[in-house]
Amino acid sequence: MGATGAEAAGVSAGVRERRCDVLIAGAGLVGLALAPALARAGLDVVLADRAVPVVPEPLPDSWDVRVYAISPGSATWLHSIGAWQALPAERIAAIESMRIAGDDGALLNFSAYENGERALAWIVEERALRAALVPLVHAAGVEIAAPCAFDALTWSEDAGHLAREDGTTIAARLVVGADGLRSGVRRSAGIDAPTRPYGQIGVVANFACERAHHGRAHQWFRPDGSILAWLPLPGRRVSMVWSASDALAAELLQHEPAALADRVAAAGRHALGAFDCLTAPAGFPLQFMRPPATVAHRLALVGDAAHGVHPLAGQGVNLGFGDAEALAAVLRQRGPVADAGAPILLERYARRRSEPVLAMQTVTDRLARLFGNPAPWQKAARNLGMAAIERLPLAKRLLAQSALR
Ligand SMILES: Cc1cc2nc3c(=O)[nH]c(=O)nc-3n(C[C@H](O)[C@H](O)[C@H](O)COP(=O)(O)OP(=O)(O)OC[C@H]3O[C@@H](n4cnc5c(N)ncnc54)[C@H](O)[C@@H]3O)c2cc1C
What we know:
By secondary structure, this protein is of the alpha+beta class. It has helices spanning 5-9, 29-39, 72-80, 126-139, 184-188, 246-254, 257-267, 316-332, 343-372, 376-390, 393-404; strands at residues 11-12, 15-25, 45-48, 67-70, 93-95, 97-101, 107-111, 121-125, 143-145, 153-155, 160-163, 169-177, 195-209, 216-221, 227-233, 237-245, 275-277, 282-289, 295-296, 299-301. The strands form 3 sheets. Strands 1, 2, 3, 9, 10, 11, 12, 19 and 20 form a 9-stranded mixed β-sheet that branches. Strands 6, 7, 13, 14, 15, 16, 17 and 18 form an 8-stranded mixed β-sheet that branches. Strand 15 and strand 16 form a beta hairpin. The radius of gyration is 22 Å and the shape is globular. Flavin-adenine dinucleotide (FAD) is lined by residues 26-31, 49-51, 68-69, 149-150, 178-180, 184, 202, 204, 241, 284, 303-304, 311, 314-318, 320.
C-alpha cells in the first residue's frame, strides 16, 4: 500500500510535501532497526533524525564505551532483519553465566547452560550495531530525512505533518516516535509523561582485566545503594555499568584512569585481578518513565520514547527492539487495512506491548527501589529473598526466561 509515485513526489498546491506511509522520528538503535523491517513489509518509510545516520568507522584497537546486553530474543529478531549476521563475531562476547551478590552476602547464580541457551545475553558495542543497521536502512530503500528537527509536528485527520526548516513537509499516515526518553514527538501529541529520576547516574567504562572472565557477568548490589555490574567483552576485558548516587558518580567521573581502575577492581573484590582503563568513563542519568499511552491519533511510540527503565537488568534497548518487532508484525499482517495509521492497527500494537513492558518496568523498578532502601529490615528481607530464589530452580528459571525473551 505504499504511497503512489505522484504522491511520493508529493507536490501539492504549491507546498513541497513528501507523503509516505510511515515517518520514523528518531534514528537511534530502535528507529534504525524498525525502518528496514517496515520497508520490507511493503511500506513507504522515511527515517528522520537531527543527525545523518552514518556507518561508524571501524576502530579495531579501541572499544566503544556504550555497550548493550542483547537478549537472545532480540538477537533472533535482529537476525531476521539481517543485522545480527552482519556483526563482527570477534567484537561480541557471550554472557554464559551471571553471579549476582546482595548487599548482605546473598548470592544468585544464572547459567545459560541450565536454561538451554548458548548465552544469557550477548555484549555488543553500539557502534557495531549501528554499522550493521545503517546499510540495511539504505538497502531497504528507506528515505533519510536528516538533519531534521521534530519541533514543528502537527496532526490532521489523515496524517502527521512534519515541517522542515527548508520549507518542505513530510506527511505520514503514521508517525513513529523513536526519539528517546525526552521525546518531543510524544509531547507534540499531548501525551504527558513525567520522568521520575532514580537519583543515580549510570557510569560506564571499559577495562582490561588481569584474569580471564570465562564469559561470566557480575553484579553487586552494594551497601551504599549503588549497583555495580561487570559485563564480559571479548578477551580479558570487561565493560562496567555502575549505577551510582550523583555524589559517587561525580567522584568516579573525576578519577584519573589508574585511580578509577583500582577503585572498580577493588569494588568487585578483585574477582578478576587488577584492572586497566580502556576508555574514559561516561555518565547517563537514570530515570523511570511510563507514559499513560503509547499510541495516539496517527502516532505509535517505540523504544525509550515509550518507556524508561533502570539499566540494572540491561533491558532498555531490548524492550525497544521488542516494540519494533511487534509494530513491524502488526503492520505486516494488516490484511485489508490499507492505512498504516489506522486505529485498529495502533490498538493491536499497544495491546501486544503492554504486558511485557509493564512486567519489565515493574521488576526493574522494584529491584532498584528495594536495594536503594537503607532500612536494616529491608536489607535482611531482600537478601533472604535472593537466597530463597537461588534455592528454587523453577523461580530462577522463570526469572531467567523472561529476561532471555
Ligand atoms: C548506563 C546505561 C546502560 C544501558 N545498558 C543497556 C543494556 O545493556 N541493554 C539494553 O537493552 N539497554 C541498555 N540501556 C538502555 C538503552 O541505552 C536505551 O534503551 C536505548 O539506547 C534507547 O534507544 P532509542 O533508539 O529508543 O532512543 P535513543 O538512543 O535515545 O535515540 C533517539 C534518537 O532520536 C533523535 N532525536 C531525539 N530528539 C530529536 C529531535 N527533537 N529532533 C531530531 N532528532 C531527535 C536522537 O538524535 C537519537 O538519534 C542502557 C542505558 C543506560 C543509561
